[in-house]
Amino acid sequence: MENMQRPIKVLMLPWLAHGHISPFLELAKRLSTRNFHIHLCSTPVNLSSIKPKISDKYSSSIELVELLLPSLPDLPPHYHTTKGLPPHLMNTLKVAFDMASPGFSDIVKSLGPDLLICDLFQPWAAEVAKSHGLPTVVFFIVGARTISFMFHMIKNASSKFPFEAIRFHDYELAKIGKAADDSTARVKDEDRLLQSVERSSNFILLKTFREMDGKYMDYLSSLSGKKSVNYGDSIIEWLDKREQSSTIFVSFGSEYFLTEKEREEIAHGLELSNDNFIWVIRFPVGESIELEEALPKGFLGRVRNRGLVIDGWAPQGKILEHPSIGGFVSHCGWGSLMESMKSGVPIIAMPMLHDQPLNARMVEEVGVGLEVKRNESGELERLEIAKVIKHVVVEKDGDSVRKKTKEMSDIIRNKGEEEIDEVVDALVQLCARCTEQSTS
Questions:
Q1: How far apart are CA 241 and CA 243, in angstroms?
Q2: pTM to 2 decimals?
Q3: 20 classed as catalytic
Q4: What fold does the segment set 8-232+415-435 form as a domain?
Q5: CATH assignment, 234-412
Q6: Residue-wise pLDDT tens digits, 195-248
Q7: What are the φ and ψ backbone dihedral angles of 87, each rounded to 5 degrees?
Q8: Which of 20, 37, 80, 152 is catalytic?
């Protein structure tokens, strides 16, 4: 089986968010070089933005497959994605995704894949795969500590999570509860998580590194009974003119929009730090706001010689790899942290939502950055922002953080193809086992 002549056909079904689709596409590219043929399935509106990211190198081994969601009164096709989706329609999108099960079943029947790799929000997909005799692997695009924490709180809520470094502050729990209110949901997110793990065949796939997340991977395995397998321009010209490790990159991901108060405190914090910076700011779709209006009066003029503020998008990967970058002010989205650590860039952690506070605790636990502490009301403060930036990037006391970040980068880069080898072995063995069972 390990030397199969025929490529293994994999059908991938990520959740309808770009922050989920991108890791699936990354995995697809890695697997496609190892005798796997990938069918990546999503809604037309998502596929239209994915298509340009598939170069000629992968065009014959990665195919895009359209999944049509049912028409609902409040959910036209351009809302069949989380990008630009009004928050109050999130549960509606999940309902529509659930209702796409029959259409997905037709796709499985038509393509005849060997296995399904899917996300945590659609446990029904594993049932569809099972009905066609296919194994399923759930792929978590966040770290093992987050999934193990969530799984623990669902299954063992009365007992304390065994790793004290991983915790939420009260104001974070309140914020998460408000953002994730699923009281009107047909299926609660915690049930989706449980069912996804239960229906994953033999193992769970995670985007992380064992050196960083090993004990949490093991704990997740003990909770779930499943093995945890891990796998881990003009702006550049502007950076070229800066000294090595002298510049801060500031970005809060593609789906979080800073409040006016947060923008104000971050702007003053950057100004007080006296460091060079690139700050990527995004606004909700449909909101036309000029940067001058969104930031403190006179800010852009005062920092024009050392600060670059960008409205919309920037090539984060290229920026983090640039030698002039000395720190990353991040919301602690898992993908961003992985990129930062691989690039050897220390992290100034400012978690906002979801798993980000736990990721920020991880940053400090591992020693690759520091979290900006908030006041008792959970608000960011400019003096604290400036203090943490200077500590991580400039001051002598930050030597240990910078050294640890360099060590973590070396570990991650030296892993090379080791992680994907384990993923390939696990998937091949699963297919072999299922083939043997179906022929016996």
A1: 7
A2: 0.65
A3: yes
A4: Rossmann fold (3.40.50)
A5: 3.40.50.2000
A6: 999 999 989 999 886 756 788 899 999 999 999 998 865 688 788 889 999 999
A7: -55, -35
A8: 20
